[in-house]
Design a protein that fits this description.
The structure holds 3 protein chains of 3 kinds. Chain A is of the alpha/beta class. Helix content of chain A is 41%, strand content 9%. Chain A has 2 domains: 20-338, 3-Layer(aba) Sandwich (Rossmann fold), CATH 3.40.50.970; 344-376, no CATH class. In chain A, α1 crosses α2 and α4 crosses α12. Chain A is globular and about 80 Å long. Chain B has 3 domains: 2-79, RNA polymerase II/Efflux pump adaptor protein, barrel-sandwich hybrid domain (OB fold (Dihydrolipoamide Acetyltransferase, E2P), Beta Barrel), CATH 2.40.50.100; 153-192, E3-binding domain (Dihydrolipoamide Transferase); 219-414, Chloramphenicol Acetyltransferase (2-Layer Sandwich). In chain B, strands 12, 15, 18, 19, 20, 21 and 22 form a 7-stranded mixed beta sheet that branches. A 4-stranded antiparallel beta sheet of chain B has the order 1-8-6-3, with no helix packed on it. In chain B, β21 and β22 form a beta hairpin. Chain C has 2 domains: 2-184, Thiamin diphosphate (ThDP)-binding fold, Pyr/PP domains (Rossmann fold); 197-324, 3-Layer(aba) Sandwich (Rossmann fold). Helices cover 37% and strands 20% of the residues of chain C. In chain C, β6 (144-146), α7 and β7 (168-173) form a beta-alpha-beta unit. In chain C, α3 packs parallel to α4 and α8 crosses α12 (312-324). The longest helix of chain C is centred in the first third of the chain and has 15 residues, at 6-20. Classes of the chains: A alpha/beta, B alpha+beta, C alpha/beta. Chains in contact: A-B, A-C, B-C. At the B-C interface, β9 of B face α7, β8, β9 and α9 of C. β9 of chain B pairs antiparallel with β9 (197-200) of chain C.
Chain lengths: 376, 418, 325
């Protein structure tokens, strides 16, 4: 909870000189704690076993996919890959609360959200395998592709929401950003615009504690990232990002508010980056292994499993079956990825313009002649 | 049997040290099962099995340093992979190399090697000469000067070079008159004895007070230059005896009819010729360009298809063309594509001339001033009205015989009474 | 003397200059504890402390802007942009302030800042990590743009850049970071800026290039030598301002010019070199100037990356064209 310091007057003057003109509070939401204990006042989702099983299935699938992707990189079959290990509850919880016709603007790690929304695992692999057709999603066709220039996606989400508002649609944009990203100017520009124009935009700050090697304490002086919403005049709330019920709850409220025309929300999802920043990073250079161990004890899958066990809708046999099923699905996706043909050099030229200029077509010819000549 | 080489672990590493094996020879491993732990720069990385299979051979002991790309494990009867893990369409290119040291990067595969770079590097610029790490002193730089030739290299405009090459001229033999002794196009042409008919638009008038030709005069200048360069003119002179003509003959239409007859008799003079390709096109229709003198200069409107027109039609057309020519309202279609030319300078003055053939035509007939000449007849002398004729033909594609027969046909028709 | 990679040379140049000049400070994302994502600044924070080697918050515009402020107070910031593709948020500061401060204040305030960043592709990196944007920077008056192509030149030119009283954008070819090792004396000797480096003498054709393309060009030159073609290879090194004198001197001797750069063709620095040679040495040319460049497309991802980047085959064909036209 954020308590702004009480205002003080000048030396010896006390509170008679300055009076409080605005006060803010930041609230935190958690229902399912790290051990799988459910809080008393939990939302209906907490007992909606069908919905929870679906979420657990997806979270397991994402975990399986993510592990395999890392292995593919380690065996030379995938380029650099940004693992989402530990973020499954945030990613699935956010997406599960969205409508299909909402628009997602990701960073580059939120595969759980994307897979939930229908993006194929083979498509994701295609992108990280170095082929731009991996951004040509077969589902969720209006969702933005992965965004490497940090925080620039904030403005895209705001712009999408602006279009929705102009047209009077009951749709929302959902934009992800990392803790490091909240230091970029574009972050403030995005939330400011959304606030000033009451846009149906939800901003999900995934605070996983680390921006490559820079810990959150070194990134900003604020106690929470949710309170940055205050600067934009929009509601900000903090949630346990490893509690899928809480994430879903907070997202649902934010989306409902936006659809009612009440404007944007900033959600700070607290989680931990259990993996390296990418497969080529080495987090052991800058992280305390105890801290990592601690974080593992709070990770999202076991607590949901424990809750499902309590609800008597889960057991070891089903766990095994789920793991096998996920492994099969992931294998199929990997096969599809590995057997796709390599793009021809024309792919470099064919998607720059609707009407390619003559000079470009001449270069396309040259590239065909030299295809493969580098020996790489 | 399939092999698995140490992949590039994504940090651009050249090598890794084996920390411990998790499997033994003879073990059946499943895909993704951790096979061994290797230490890269300050990190221990688990390397998983790329496919399922039975381990046949392990290459390396704990403590061994294995180079990226080097053989690590051999499998028997591997499933799920027909080809070695490091080949195939999805192999993200790695380099097999020997290197050492920390090779961190958060993205990509960085090529590394132990290749030593031996180079010499001379810093350019005379004021900044400097030795590089390999201890070579910098050279002082000779600046480019405006010299015409140096070390046998000839300074020539690119167009001059191209022209010299085309004409087979040795640039070294050409005296350059451009600035600084540069060989320019005119120099190459001078060497080749071909003068260019192309006007140099940007050159200043040669005579003070002179004015640059414009419009019709300029067009004539260009056209005549072209003619002189390309055409082999030869002129045949004769006189038509008109003493049988009744009063009031229309000289111009008689001339046109005579030309029409002669073109039927000798089609070779009603043709187009292209000297570059040595192509001749005989024209079936006779379109005669008639030189008209205007204050602005020479205009040549064309009377079309004279063989198919009556005298009255021809007269009507001639008048129209003369009028529009003088008004400068003549339409472009009336100035284009003549097949034969007539110059009736005789209306002003002059008996004989050497008129100039204008390509692509191959002939031009000039008719001079009618005069009463005293000629010898069988029993003495008579005064006959005569018309001097000058027929110039392009001797590249018209023979003397053809020209003479043409002239004979012209005379034959002109000398009739009507 | 030691054999070092380019990354190590850059690291040593930092250490040397930070020891010699207490005003030099390093700032950027992940440069301190992590030593930089390519380890260019490894060990510097341990050696010089957290005030002089700062892990900044994640904001490129902030990095460039704060460097300006610090420089006017007498510090010499050496700022890192993590990849050239991320320079865009910093462009407002670089173009509107860094490049102009001396001019606008008539010398009262100056900006001795170095901004260094990995340059170019060829390491199978994700999107936006493989950019070559030197032409955009060179087009700004008031900026120097420098690009070493060897460990020795990285060491010497970085020292020169840090010591220069004006802003320098220092582009480090990522593909060359660890490609080779070279004997480099860690003696604090700077190399001159604003000059080309002749890496190979030749008589038939002048090839001007820079960055990672130097390696490909030298490979091509070696092969061409075997078929009797003598290539002179110039490393441009300082991409702006260009040392035209050295290029002109070479072209007037050889009569032929090929320019090689990874950056896209349209309005690339090759065009500037070609235009100047056409202006000042047209009559010495025996053949049209050739440029071998990246295509006018977005730098493709890993699968097609090496079909984009100019290679020895393309360079050799361009040279041969100058000899047969």
């Amino acid at each position: 909870m954020y308590n702004p310091p009480r205002s003080r007057g000048g030396p010896g003057r006390g509170n008679r000189v300055l009076k409080t003109v605005a006060e803010f509070a930041i609230k935190y939401c958690q229902f399912l704690d790290a051990s799988g204990n459910l809080a008393a006042a939990a939302p209906p989702l907490a007992s909606d076993t069908d919905a929870l099983l679906e979420m657990y299935r997806f979270m397991t699938l994402v975990r399986t996919f993510d592990t395999k992707a890392v292995n593919l990189q380690r065996t030379g079959k995938l380029g650099t890959y940004a693992s989402c290990l530990g973020h499954e509850a945030t990613h699935v919880g956010v997406a599960a609360a969205m409508q299909a016709d909402d628009v997602l603007c990701p960073v580059y790690r939120e595969f759980g959200s994307q897979i939930w929304r229908g993006v194929k695992m083979s498509t994701i692999l295609t992108f990280w395998g170095g082929d731009e057709s991996g951004s040509n999603f077969t589902a969720a066709r209006q969702d933005f592709p992965w965004c490497v220039p940090i925080a620039s996606q904030m403005l895209h989400g705001a712009g999408v929401a602006m279009a929705m508002k102009i047209r009077g649609e009951k749709r929302c944009s959902v934009t992800y950003i990392g803790d490091g990203g909240t230091s970029e100017g574009a972050f403030y520009e995005g939330i400011n615009l959304a606030g000033a124009r009451a846009l149906p935009a939800i901003f999900v700050v995934v605070n996983n504690g680390w921006a490559i090697s820079v810990p959150i304490e070194h990134q900003t002086a604020t106690k929470t990232l949710a309170q940055k919403a205050i600067a934009a005049g929009i509601p900000g709330v903090q949630v346990d990002g490893n509690d899928v019920i809480a994430v879903h709850h907070v997202m649902s409220e934010a989306l409902a508010r936006a659809r009612r025309g009440e404007g944007p929300t900033l959600i700070e999802a607290l989680t931990y980056r259990l993996s390296d920043h990418t497969t080529a990073d080495d987090a052991s250079r800058y992280r305390d292994p105890d801290e990592v161990r601690q974080a593992w004890s709070k990770e999202p899958l076991p607590r949901l499993r424990a809750h499902l066990l309590k609800l008597k809708v889960w057991d070891d046999a089903r766990e095994e079956a789920l793991k096998k099923e996920c492994a099969r699905e992931v294998e199929a996706a990997v096969d599809e990825y590995l057997s796709a043909p390599k793009p021809t050099t024309d792919a470099m030229f064919d998607h720059l313009f609707a009407r390619p200029p003559k000079s470009l077509l001449e270069q396309r010819e040259q590239a065909r002649r030299y295809a493969g000549s580098s020996g790489h | 049997m399939t092999s698995f080489n140490l992949p590039d672990l994504g940090e651009g590493l050249a090598e890794a040290e084996i920390v411990r094996w998790h499997v033994n020879v003879g073990d059946t491993v499943a895909v993704d099962q951790p096979m061994l732990a290797v230490e890269t720069a300050k990190a221990v990385v688990e390397v998983p099995a790329p496919f399922s299979g039975v381990i046949k051979k392990l290459h390396g002991q704990p403590g061994d340093v294995i180079a990226t790309g080097a053989l690590l494990v051999e499998f028997e009867g591997a499933k799920g992979e027909a080809s070695p893990a490091n080949s195939g369409p999805h192999h993200i290119a790695t380099r097999s190399s020997h290197g050492s040291g920390d090779a961190g990067t958060v993205v990509g595969n960085m090529p590394t090697s132990d290749i030593e770079l031996i180079e010499t590097a001379h810093a350019g610029g005379s004021a900044h000469g400097h030795t590089n790490g390999n201890g070579h002193a910098a050279t002082s730089t000779a600046h480019a000067s405006t010299r015409a030739q140096a070390d046998g290299r000839i300074r020539a405009a690119p167009a001059a070079r191209a022209l010299a090459k085309h004409l087979g001229i040795n640039l070294a033999a050409v005296h350059g008159t451009g600035r600084g002794g540069v060989v320019i196009v005119a120099d190459v042409l001078a060497q080749s004895n071909i003068s260019t008919h192309r006007t140099n638009d940007s050159a200043a008038p040669r005579f003070a007070g002179g004015e640059r030709l414009k419009g019709l005069r300029r067009a004539m200048a260009q056209s005549m230059s072209l003619a002189r360069d390309n055409v082999t003119n030869c002129t045949l002179f004769d006189d038509a005896d008109l003493h049988r003509w009744p009063e009031g003959q229309d000289i111009t239409t008689r001339l046109l009819r005579a030309i029409s007859m002669a073109c039927k008799a000798v089609p070779a003079l009603n043709a187009w010729y292209d000297g570059d390709t040595q192509t001749r096109l005989l024209k079936s229709r006779v379109d005669v360009g008639m030189a008209v003198d205007t204050p602005d200069g020479l205009i040549v409107p064309i009377v079309r298809d004279i063989g198919a027109r009556t005298t009255a039609e021809l007269r009507h057309d001639i008048d129209r063309l003369k009028r529009t020519a003088r008004d400068r309202t003549v339409a472009p279609e009336d100035l284009r594509d003549a097949t034969f030319m007539l110059s009736n300078f005789g209306m002003i003055a002059g008996r004989y001339a050497t008129p100039v053939v204008v390509p692509p035509m191959v002939a031009i007939l000039g008719s001079g001033r009618l005069s009463r000449d005293v000629i010898a007849v069988e029993n003495g002398f008579e005064a006959h009205l005569r018309m001097p004729l000058s027929l110039t033909f392009d001797h590249r594609c018209v023979t003397g015989g053809e020209a003479a027969r043409f002239m004979a046909a012209v005379l034959g028709d002109l000398e009739k009474d009507t | 003397m030691a054999k070092v990679t380019m990354i190590e040379a850059i690291n040593r140049a930092h250490a040397w200059e930070m020891t010699r000049d207490p005003n030099v400070v390093v700032l950027g994302e992940d440069v301190g504890v992590n030593g930089g994502v390519f380890r260019a600044t490894a060990g510097l924070q341990e050696q010089f402390g957290k005030d002089r080697v700062q892990d900044t918050p994640l904001a490129e515009g902030m990095i460039a802007g704060m460097a300006i402020g610090m420089a006017t107070q007498g510090l010499r910031p050496v700022a890192e942009i993590q990849f050239m593709g991320f320079i865009y948020p910093a462009m407002d500061q670089i173009a509107n302030h860094m490049a102009r401060l001396r001019n606008r204040t008539r010398g009262r305030l100056t900006c001795p800042v170095v901004i260094r960043m990995p340059h170019g592709g060829g390491i199978h990196a994700p999107e936006h990590h493989s950019e070559s944007l030197e032409a955009m920077l060179a087009h700004h008056a008031g900026l120097r743009v420098v690009c070493p192509s060897s460990p020795a030149r990285a060491y010497g030119l970085l020292l020169a850049a840090i010591r220069d009283p004006d802003p320098v954008i220092f582009l480090e070819p990522a593909r060359l970071y660890r490609l080779v090792k070279q004997e480099v004396a860690d003696d604090g000797q700077a190399l001159p800026l604003d000059v080309c480096y002749r890496l190979r003498e030749g008589t038939d054709v002048t090839i001007v290039t820079w960055g990672a393309m130097v390696t490909e060009t030298l490979k091509a030159a070696e092969t061409l030598e075997n078929s009797g073609v003598s290539c002179e290879v110039l490393d441009l090194a300082t991409l702006s301002p260009i040392d035209h004198d050295t290029i002109l001197e070479s072209v007037t001797r050889t009569g032929r010019l090929v320019i090689v750069h990874e950056a896209p063709r349209n309005c690339g620095i090759g065009a500037e070199i070609a235009a100047t040679v056409a202006e000042r040495a047209l009559y010495d040319l025996h053949a049209p100037i050739k440029r071998v460049t990246g295509y006018d497309t977005i730098m493709p991802l890993a699968r097609l990356e090496y079909d984009y980047i100019p290679n020895a085959a393309r360079i050799m064909d361009a040279v041969r064209e100058t000899l047969t036209e």
